[in-house]
Each structure stands twice: as C-alpha cells, then as structure tokens.
TrEMBL record:
One GO process term, biological-process aspect: respiratory electron transport chain
Subunit structure as annotated in this protein's UniProt entry: Homodimer.
Cofactor(s) needed by this chain: FAD
Source organism of the structure: Halovibrio salipaludis
Top-rank lineage group of the source organism: Bacteria
FAD-binding PCMH-type domain residues: 41-220
GO molecular function annotation: (R)-2-hydroxyglutarate dehydrogenase activity; FAD binding; metal ion binding
Lineage per the UniProt record: Bacteria, Pseudomonadati, Pseudomonadota, Gammaproteobacteria, Oceanospirillales
Catalytic activity: (R)-2-hydroxyglutarate + A = 2-oxoglutarate + AH2
Stored PANTHER family: D-2-HYDROXYGLUTARATE DEHYDROGENASE, MITOCHONDRIAL (PTHR43716)
Family annotation (InterPro entries): FAD-bd_oxidored_4_C, FAD-bd_PCMH, FAD-bd_PCMH-like_sf, FAD-bd_PCMH_sub1, FAD-bd_PCMH_sub2, FAD-linked_Oxase-like_C, FAD-oxidored/transferase_4, Oxid_FAD_bind_N
The protein's name: D-2-hydroxyglutarate dehydrogenase
Pfam families the record matches: FAD-oxidase_C, FAD_binding_4
C-alpha cells in the first residue's frame, strides 16, 4: 500500500504533531532516511516524519489509516535486510527525536528508554550506573534500541547473554490499528497468557511501532580477556569450543577466515594476531576473575595445541590489548563494505557448523569460481555470515542477480540442515522470498493472520518479512 504525492499534505500531518514533531520532504532527507545499510534498493519515500512522543506516533498511525498510507518504522538504519527501506513512496517514521532515557531503578536493574536511544548511549548509561547492557555489535554507535528490538538484534555476546529479546521486560507500542499497548510493565514473571511483547520483538515493524522499552541490565563483567587462536581445520573450532566451554563461562566465541583478516589488515591496518598464517581463526572471551581462571585458560590452550587442534594463539594482557584483538573480528564488516558484499546470515545447530559451512562453500565456489567468499560469524551460536564480494568490473544489479541464483542452492542446504535463512539480521525485503526454507507454509499463514489482527489495513512496513494476502 502507498499513497501518491498529490494526496499528501505535509502541513496537515505537521498539524497533528502537537508535541513538536516535524515532517521532512527535502530530497537529501528522503535519500538519507529511505535506506538502510543494504544498499540494494533505491530510496524513494514520500516524506519523513520525526515524532516526539507516543501520542504523536498514534496520531501518525491514525492519519495513515485514513489516508491509506504505508508507514516504514525507522531507527538507526543499520539493518542488513532492507527492513527499514522505503523504496515505494512510503512515509518513513524515524524515532531519532524520541531518544530520552526516561527512568532507572537500581533495585530492579531496569532502565526505561524511548525507542530512539542509540545502543551505545544505553551501554554508556548502564556503565555509569555500575551495570552492563550486554547486547553488543559493531553498529552499536548508530543503531537504535527500537530497531534492535524490532529485529531482535544479536551480536557478539549471544553465547553468554542471549539476544535482545532476553533483555526486554516491557514495551510500549502503537499498533497498526492505532492502539497504544503497554506490554509486560517490567515484570520478570507474568504468566497471564499470550505475551504480545514477544510478537513485537523481531516483528520487524510489521505489527506497529515500538515507542518505549524497559530493559534489564546485568552486573558488569570483570577483567574480560580475549584469546585469538589459529586453526588448520574448521572442525577443530568445535573441539576447541567444547574444551573451553567445559571449564570456562565464555562471553564470546567468534570465528573468521584468513581472507577476512586480510581485508581488515588492508582496510584498517589492524595487525595480524601472530605470525603464523592459518586458514581459520577463533576468538574467545572470558572473565579472568582470578589467577586460577587464567591458569585454567592457559592449560586449556596447551591441551588444544597438544591435540593439534590449535596451531598458534595469543592472549590479551590488558583491556587495550583485548580491544585490539576484538578489532580483528569487529572491523570485518566495514572492511569488506567497499566490495558491495552480498550477505547471507545463516544458522544451524552448533555441532553441524563445520560440515554445513564446507557444503555451502563448495556449492558457491563451484558456481562462481571468480567470486571472493568471506566467512566469519558467531560460531558459538551456530551463526555464520557468508559474504560474496562483487568483482570490481561487475555491475551491482547483475552481481546481486547472480548471487540470488545461487541462493536457492544455499537455502536448500539450510533447509536440509533444518537451519535458518536469517540468524540475526532479520528478513526484511531481502530474505522474504526465502522464508519458506525455514518456516512452514502453515507457520507463515499464522504469521499473516497475526499481522491482520494488529494491522488490519496493512499500513505497517508492507513488503517486509511477509506479504499480506
Ligand atoms: C557482524 O557480525 O559483523 C554483523 O552481523 C555484520 C555483518 O554480518 O556484516
Ligand atoms: Zn553478526
């Protein structure tokens, strides 16, 4: 659903924004607010509206229902599945101006935020309270909490702390029908039937707007220590994980290929972790709370070397060194970005990761021997990022078309392994046509039914996640 430019009058909409929200229609604003980090689709929104309150969001939704106008909720626009793209004359509703931290309760360890709070702002606020917001990823400096919740963002600490869903104890939402709902009120326990909060988490803005969230905070971790290990055989990443996990409570277990490191080195001048060059690397993190923990970690490392699972390794001796080692992993995405990567974000049960990766790699490299393939990901969660880089001389649309051709082969493998076509990036527009490889037709039909309940006129983020019937 979308409206036409002639039917839309910015002043009428602005007149509904009684708390100071504003409407933007300048071409630069439309271009900036109409896209996310996917860059596959050209932005073409009708206008951008920046509300200041939940009531203003409600007024916008009511107006959109009357006008049959499609709305696209927009946070930090760092998504990788085109969930926040407005390419078809939709109205972008950006939460940037609803960016206040509203309340904090130390006894509850709860912080109440507006949806436009930037992830890093929440992390810093938690730190100032002597607490910790553990959901973390490379785009934390730009991504906004509402978007994180709408996409159930994961990141680099999921192995210990779970995904965004695990930290949301309350939501205020405006449904596509224009109702304001307060969901769960910050309660840890609340067994009163359907938990509607969970539908909005990961709902990709297809049911309504998240305007406020009550987030749980954790105790601060102490002396986070990082090891980077070099491996010759992918299957050994799992042996190493099981060894370390049996004795230490890992806060991260990440993986990247030698090709990924080469891009980080070239782009960001981050040095290699050690001289030995290996095809695969694992990065693990744990809290070195005592000398005993450090000795245990060293003993585990020696065991892995004796078993010939690990070829070389390095362990951080300070916070600064730990941060440097993290850069090897966290800067991969930005380092390959200039090569216009086609991204797949896959997951399987962790025990099956090595055979799954090898099978997909051989299919993609056989199909496209000239394309560079970069692997990295949150291997401790069974989550692999497959990035195919665009050859410099190939046109963007032609490249994406060829990558989509190989997708059917990749997703057939995903289906056979009972994995997911989107582990943490969401479905948006990019993965919508592949949803059936992970969810059954019956499940998708139920999802469509749920959407109808919350968004009877289909104005909320149409074309994302599922198609309306
Ligand atoms: C990451 O793990 O670095 C992010 O999910 C971004 C990406 O996959 O490029
Ligand atoms: Zn990731």
């Amino acid at each position: 659903m979308s409206t036409t430019a002639t039917a839309f009058d910015p002043q009428t909409l602005e007149g509904l924004l009684t708390d100071g929200g504003k409407v933007l229609t300048a071409p630069d604003d439309l271009a900036a607010y109409g896209c996310d980090w996917t860059r596959i689709y050209d932005p073409a929104p009708l206008a951008v509206v920046l509300p200041k309150s939940t009531e203003e969001v409600q007024a916008i939704v009511r107006y959109a229902n009357e006008q049959h106008m499609a709305l696209v909720p927009s946070g930090g626009r760092t998504g990788l599945s085109a969930g926040a793209v407005a390419a078809n004359g939709e109205m972008v509703v950006a939460m940037d101006r609803m960016n206040r931290i509203l309340d904090f309760n130390a006894n509850d360890r709860l912080v109440q935020c507006e949806a436009g709070v930037v992830t890093e702002q929440l992390q810093q606020y938690a730190d100032e309270q002597g607490l910790y917001y553990p959901v973390d990823f490379a785009s934390a400096g730009s991504s906004e909490l509402g978007g994180n919740i709408a996409t159930n963002a994961g990141g680099i600490k999921v192995i210990r702390y779970g995904m965004t869903r695990d930290w949301v104890l309350g939501l205020k939402v405006v449904t596509g029908a224009g109702e304001i709902l307060e969901l769960n009120n910050g309660l840890e326990k609340n067994n009163t039937g359907y938990d509607l909060r969970q539908l909005f988490i990961g709902g990709e803005g297809t049911l309504g707007f998240i305007t406020e969230a009550t987030m749980k905070l954790a105790r601060q971790p102490s002396n986070l220590t990082v090891m980077v290990l070099g491996l010759n055989d992918l299957s050994n990443t799992m042996d190493v994980l099981q060894s370390f996990r049996s004795k230490l409570d890992l806060t991260a277990y990440e993986f990247f290929s030698n090709e990924a490191i080469a891009h980080v080195q070239a782009h960001a001048e981050v040095p290699r972790p050690f001289e030995t060059e290996c095809p695969y690397y694992a990065l693990l993190e744990f809290e070195a709370t005592s000398e005993g923990v450090m000795e245990e970690a060293m003993a585990l490392f020696e065991h892995c070397v004796e078993q010939e699972w690990v070829v070389d390794g390095v362990i951080s001796q300070s916070e600064g060194q730990a941060e440097k080692l993290w850069q090897l992993r966290e800067r991969i995405s930005e380092s390959i970005a200039p090569h216009t990567p086609y991204k797949n974000d896959l997951s399987v049960r962790i025990s099956r990761v090595p055979e799954f990766l090898n099978e997909i790699h051989s299919v993609v490299s056989k199909e496209y021997p000239d394309f560079e393939i970069i692997w990295y990901g949150h291997i401790g969660d069974g989550n692999l990022h497959l990035n195919i880089l665009k050859p410099a001389d190939m046109e963007k649309q032609e490249f994406f078309k060829r990558c989509e051709t190989v997708n059917d082969l990749v997703f057939e493998i995903v289906q056979r392994y009972e994995g997911s076509v989107s582990a943490e990036h969401g479905v948006g527009m990019v993965k919508k046509k592949y949803l059936g490889f992970t969810k059954s037709a019956e499940e998708i039909a139920v999802m469509k039914g749920i959407k109808k309940v919350f968004d009877p006129n289909g104005i909320m983020n149409p074309g994302k996640l599922i198609d309306s019937d």
